[in-house]
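Justification of computing resources. Each target in the renewal requires a structure prediction run like the one illustrated here; the chain below, 116 residues long, is used simply to show the kind of job we budget for.
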Amino acid sequence: MKCSMVFSRNRPMRTREIVELCDVIYKLHGARARHIHSVPVCEEFQGRVVWDGIVEVFGLSGHPKANRIYAWAHETGDPSNPMRYVTVLHIPPVVSPQTAVQAAILQEYKSRAKSN
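Resulting structure tokens:
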């Protein structure tokens, strides 16, 4: 198993989603992930909510540069590719779930700007 589950306050985590994220982390980064906890993040820009969701925090073993990673998934609305998985390594300036979301938003913006 690529992921070990942690239970918080006697409430099981969303098992299927956590296991899927562990699999994605292993495929993308070649490291084993251990779920630590879930953190709600709401990111605003110019008074508007641009991202609101749950960031999953994982410990990593076997990665050469990071011992932690942040991950989440969201629906795309595309039936041929219904889910998008996002992973962000805990490497400064990414040092928290909040900064992971900010880095992902910035990367998405840069990617869209390049394709236009």
